[in-house]
Specification:
With 138 residues, this protein is of the alpha+beta class. It has 5 helices and 4 strands, in the order αβββααααβ. The N and C termini lie far apart (91 Å).
């Protein structure tokens, strides 16, 4: 093979490699740009006040719970399932002891339990968070 052919083949290989790398960079940057443009909108759904006895205690829990979700179509589903959601949350809370509900860790675990319960009822991952707007034990 002559030097001229080696140079031509090397130049063609360099051009092809440059095009491939440029294409990869273009697609990676473009896909990130689409995700940045799409902002999630968060919606809130407030449940009524919940009162329940605390397991193995004479104390009562009063809680106001807000469900945060990202799909605006879920409001109708939440409305239709409000009684079941409230009932299942009450059952969950009735089985918690004072120790289970105490402190930041206890409340965080309870929030996660409620989040998983609501996601299970609605069969969706569009429920993003659960908030206690009021949490009183007396």
């Amino acid at each position: 093979m002559t030097v001229k052919k080696v140079l031509i083949l090397s130049l063609i290989g360099l051009i092809i490699a440059t095009l491939i790398i440029t294409g990869i960079i273009f697609f990676v940057l473009n896909s990130d740009g689409k995700n940045k443009d799409k902002k999630l909108t968060y919606y809130e759904y407030n449940l009524e006040e919940i009162y329940t006895n605390i397991k193995s205690s004479k104390s009562i829990l009063k809680a106001n719970i807000t469900i945060e979700y990202t799909d605006d179509k879920l409001k109708a589903v939440l409305d239709n399932n409000k009684a079941k959601i409230t009932n299942d949350i009450l059952e969950l809370l009735r089985n918690k002891t004072l120790k289970d509900l105490s402190g930041q860790e206890g409340q965080q675990k309870t929030r996660n339990d409620i989040l998983n319960k609501v996601r299970g009822i609605l069969n969706t991952k569009d429920i993003s968070n659960i908030y206690f707007t009021e949490f009183i034990i007396q």
